[in-house]
Amino acid sequence: MSDRDDIYDPLRRENLGRSVQWALEETDPIPLGSVRSRSFMGCGIYAIYYVGDHDLYKPLAAHPFEVPIYVGRSTPEGSRTGSDVKSPEESKSLRSRLMTHANKIKKVNDLEIDDFYTRFLPADDLFTPMAESMMIAELQPVWNVILHGFGVNTPGDGRKDQTRSKWHEVHRGVPAGDALPPHPGGPVPLREKVILHLGTHAVRPAHAAGVPPTAGSLDWDGAASSD
Question: What is the three-state SS of 54-107?
Fold first, then answer.
């Protein structure tokens, strides 16, 4: 008798998350700086890609739109406090989050906004956390796993004494980050970690779950159809 884990259940949390990931990766990437000129609603998931010639990130640009530099998600306004929570359809959080990222990159001394693209997908916030976790675990985006701090908002009251995040230590120019004490060790060892990381994580790994083939393009045994 087959074990329950061998039976595909489309409603399992992992499979629902995977479907969100696949839907995101089927969208066309657009310039991150162009998000401001687009009008759309919803919370959801997104991936940011690098295509420029920065010394640290050239390995990513050599395989454009394959491995993101950062993966994130947005939640409906009010969900963190539990008060006046907007429905996903009423939310503007996805667009706002992407615009915040674009504005931060524009301030950095050694990055150009034109070198960044994004895929984004308005989606029910019940399923986006699993999709985000899967993408980070499989693709190891360098700003998620090595240079922490890109997605963190400006430090609020009570956090002003903290040191710079790793991301702000490497990429200077954002006033909120520059105002904080330096990260211990400075930027040099962090840069070395980025180079080492992208030596093995700039290409989509063979084990990663890619977008499933279009229905009808494969025969039952996985061979390409000749029809």
Answer: CCCCHHHHCCCCCCCCEEEEECCCCCCCCCCCCCCCCCCHHHHHHHHHHHHHHH
Cα–Cα dist 212/220, whole Å: 14
pLDDT tens-digit series, residues 129-167: 999 999 999 999 999 999 999 998 765 444 556 899 999
Residue 217 lies in a domain: no
What letter would DSSP give residue 47? E
DSSP type of residue 32: G
Q: Which domain holds residue 187?
A: 7-198
Average pLDDT of the chain to the nearest whole number = 84
**Cα–Cα distance between 81 and 50 in angstroms, integer?**
33
Q: How many domains does the chain have?
A: 1
Whether residue 2 is contained in a domain is answered as no
**Residue 223 lies inside a defined structural domain of this protein:** no
Does some domain include residue 85? yes
Q: Residue 52 corresponds to which tokens in the numbers above?
A: 């420029």
Q: Per 3-state DSSP, what percentage of the chain is helix, strand, and coil (rounded to 5)? A: 35, 10, 55
